[in-house]
């Protein structure tokens, strides 16, 4: 059913983000002009050029400052729907992996260290108790089983969005100049798929993937859960806060708040996989225009990810068949962002290096080279 045919119910007391200011067009134009002066044929660094220009625009300065504090925040939460056989793993793995993040043994820890990023883990709705220092923003234990009950109450939804925004503020106030949201939660690809289906008006079978590696029977159970949750969510239509409440969860709501607030704080974000991008889709509805502050690190194998990226008009940097989450795909792409900033900031110009420019009469326009595209 299309949303226009329904009676829509908008959540009361919506969480309001201030209007999003776009990254600085003058700094982006200055960066594009500088790219033309650097000792390379115009456009020859391809997407690294537009990526560097985007960082310059986000910082409002050209050349951009080197990235000094990339911060990954892993949002951990359990989901009642995991009890319905929609994941290849049991829910207790969420808390076990949280412990693994804390001792530095997970992919996110290793990939972050490889590129100089640091990791923070936040328990938003893990079923079990977790260490005191990571549970200060805990909203509840496990979000509801979305095929038969709401994921959250209205108060919990608002609290989770606010928690994500507050975590973003803490990180930006501590000097973060590039943010990555990661997540860990057995069963979370099911609510993520519901959010993407609802916001792109897509059939359940087209958004449901294999998650942690479910077999055909698990996939069928997951598709049925997504169908039932979509049915329950129909009355809220595309209302972002209503969707998070009925068919999302505390971790997804917190990530949406975090991603929206990053745009408010004019701080660039490297998006991770399907689950983070589902939250991003909601965040761009909560804070229209927030997407201008995000670049997609990679494309996950989950079908919903391609749909969500297309809806956000984001082209991923990498397509490596990753399907882990945690922030791993964004971290795999981080060296590309660092390379983009380094080349734009540190390469010599033709004038500095005494290198001859292109022959007169051969214009970059003739070569179809574009320099001012968004990242
Ligand atoms: O974000 C992705 O692209 C992604 C794709 C597949 C799996 N995951 C991770 O796997 C978990 C969810 O998978 P599942 O099968 O339990 O719904 C959760 O911890 C995610 O971080 C994440
Ligand atoms: C082991 C494991 C690690 C993960 N990291 C993110 N999601 C995950 C799911 C599982 C099962």
Automatic annotation (TrEMBL):
GO terms for molecular function: nicotinate-nucleotide-dimethylbenzimidazole phosphoribosyltransferase activity. CDD domains: DMB-PRT_CobT. Keywords: Cobalamin biosynthesis, Glycosyltransferase, Transferase. Its EC number is 2.4.2.21. The lineage of its organism: Bacteria, Bacillati, Actinomycetota, Actinomycetes, Mycobacteriales. The keyword Transferase applies. It catalyses: 5,6-dimethylbenzimidazole + nicotinate beta-D-ribonucleotide = alpha-ribazole 5'-phosphate + nicotinate + H(+). Pathway: Nucleoside biosynthesis; alpha-ribazole biosynthesis; alpha-ribazole from 5,6-dimethylbenzimidazole: step 1/2. This is Nicotinate-nucleotide--dimethylbenzimidazole phosphoribosyltransferase. Catalyzes the synthesis of alpha-ribazole-5'-phosphate from nicotinate mononucleotide (NAMN) and 5,6-dimethylbenzimidazole (DMB). Belongs to the CobT family. Pfam families: DBI_PRT. The keyword Transferase applies. The gene is cobT. The active site is at residue 326.
